[in-house]
Specification:
alpha/beta; three-stranded antiparallel sheet; about 30% helix; 11 strands; about 25% strand; about 260 residues; Rossmann fold
């Protein structure tokens, strides 16, 4: 069950695992490293302060939408979250500021994408987990094409994924999105990429060139530095993985016990 700590800063946990962290007085503070990496993608999507139209698949405690509202005033944001109970809890106990430009939708992420207006988002963020796994229906080529349809020309897609060696899931996602998008990058800690531990990786996709240099600088400057893989090295990492079709789609792997628990 969801739980929210009643303190100056708020930690949302689901079944004992940390799900979101929010400081209502400091919305630009991002505690979790993977959220910082998703924010790096947004930060490099346009010049500073320019408003963006952002779609978030997966809501949590609305940490990233609050960040965008603070750093890019005037942005329009849609947050799609299938967990109605979670949305009610968050909006009741962690209310959004007036004029935030954030609209929440209690519905399934893929269904919402398939019905959304085409060319309606500058950035599309996917951070959807059923428990601790990415749902199967959000891993296929058909899903990637729905994401592409919603993005404007030159828009950016970024997804929080989780995997460990031998990276069957992560590699299949790279192969899947390479079938739809011209440009890909991957942000992850070196220890994850080397297969030393199970962890998060942020997949970035676009039809326009991705500013990998800016992403790399930001990722390298984090408390837990990450690396940005792209081009030849990313194709080498992907190897002979095949794109995922709806009929073959499976959820991401179950994390090892304690992989994302609070210490």
């Amino acid at each position: 069950m969801p739980d929210v700590d009643r303190a100056h800063a708020w930690l949302l946990t689901v079944d004992g695992a940390p799900q979101s962290y929010v400081d209502l007085d400091a919305p630009t503070h991002l505690e979790f490293e993977y959220v910082r990496r998703l924010a790096h993608v947004i930060d490099t999507a346009a010049v500073p302060d320019r408003p963006l139209d952002v779609t978030h698949l997966g809501g949590g405690a609305l940490t990233l939408p609050r960040y965008v509202a603070a750093t890019r005033p005037g942005s329009r944001q849609d947050v799609v979250e299938a967990d109605h109970g979670l949305l009610e809890l968050v909006t009741e106990r962690l209310p959004l500021p007036q004029g935030s430009g954030i609209t929440v939708h209690a519905t399934d992420a893929r269904g919402w994408l398939e019905a959304a207006e085409p060319d309606s988002a500058d950035v599309l963020i996917a951070d959807v987990f059923g428990g601790s796994r990415v749902p199967a229906h959000l891993t296929s080529v058909a899903y990637a094409r729905s994401a592409d349809r919603v993005l404007r020309t030159g828009g950016l897609y970024a997804a929080n994924l989780a995997d460990g060696a031998p990276f069957g899931f992560l590699r299949s996602q790279l192969a899947t999105f390479s079938e739809v998008f011209a440009e890909l990058a991957l942000i992850a800690e070196p220890s994850v990429l080397r297969g030393r531990r199970f962890g998060n990786a942020v997949l970035v996709a676009s039809h326009a060139p991705i500013d990998v240099e800016a992403l790399a600088r930001r990722a390298a400057g984090d408390v837990f530095p990450a690396r940005v893989e792209y081009g030849v090295s990313l194709r080498r990492f992907t190897g002979d993985a095949k794109p995922v079709r709806d009929e073959d789609a499976v959820a991401s792997p179950e994390p090892p016990e304690g992989a994302f628990s609070i210490g």
